[in-house]
Amino acid sequence: MSLVAAPVLADGCPEAPDISAEMAPLYEELLQAPDEMTARGITNRMWLLWDNAPDEPSQEMLDEGMRARAAFDMVRALKRFDALVNYCPFYAEGYNQRAFVNFIRQDYAAALPDLDRALELNPRHIGALSGRALTLIALGRDDEGQAALRAALEINPWLVERRLLKEEPGEEL
User: Fold this and answer.
1) Cα torsion for 157, 51, 121, 55, to the nearest 10°?
2) Considering just the CA atoms, what is the radius of gyration of the chain in Å?
3) What InterPro entries does UniProt report for this protein, alphabetically (predicted)?
């Protein structure tokens, strides 16, 4: 982690750290992974980077929201993730986590804009890509969901969601 102060955005939240140098080899490793278990280990290392919030207050909001979600306190989780995206509107993981809570609550219409925003901020976020695919499918937008799933699988061919992929005419899965 750099000791140089990051530019301040929003209500005092610094810009999310640039993790592209750390992520690039992980994306390459995913494409070379020989099996699902190896890929899962690589994505776990990615989550450690994505879950590293810009500063201490945002990290606390993220951690509290994730603990609340794990305890099935979705109301508290949403409040923490709402606070996080309001405080750090340029931190993709805040949107991704709020979308996940809404997905669990089956509020797919609320999840989709957060997934879209997470992907605007981090286009290669595998969790947001696969979450977007699942959300679109749940909304009955199957063609869009299949396209989103294909985009996610281009980055991580071992996603468990690959089982939802439908064969296109002339294609073998």
Assistant:
1) -160
2) 17
3) TPR-like_helical_dom_sf, TPR_rpt, Ycf3
Using the CB atoms, write b or e for 56-66: b if 16+ within 10 Å: ebbeebbebbb
- Is the model's pTM score more than 0.70? yes
Residue 138 near residue 12 (C-beta atoms within 8 A): no
Whether 66 and 52 have beta carbons less than 8 Å apart is answered as: no
CATH code, 20-161: 1.25.40.10
The two beta strands, 8-9 and 13-14, are antiparallel
For the four alpha carbons of 15, 21, 27 and 33, in that order, the dihedral sign comes to negative
Name the residue with tokens 């606070």: 83
| C-beta neighbour count of 4 within 10 angstroms | 5
| Domain extent listing, the chain | 20-161
Residue 64 vs residues 52, 82, 96, 107, 151: alpha-carbon distances, Å: 13, 12, 15, 21, 31
**What is the three-class DSSP state of 53?**
coil
In the three-class reduction of DSSP (H, G, I as helix; E, B as strand; rest coil), residue 39 is classed as helix
Determine the average pLDDT of the residues in 1-30.
Answer: 74
What proportion of the chain, given as a percentage, has pLDDT over 90? 87
Q: If DSSP codes are grouped into helix, strand and coil, which group holds residue 47?
A: helix
- Give the pLDDT confidence score for residue 1 in this predicted structure: 37
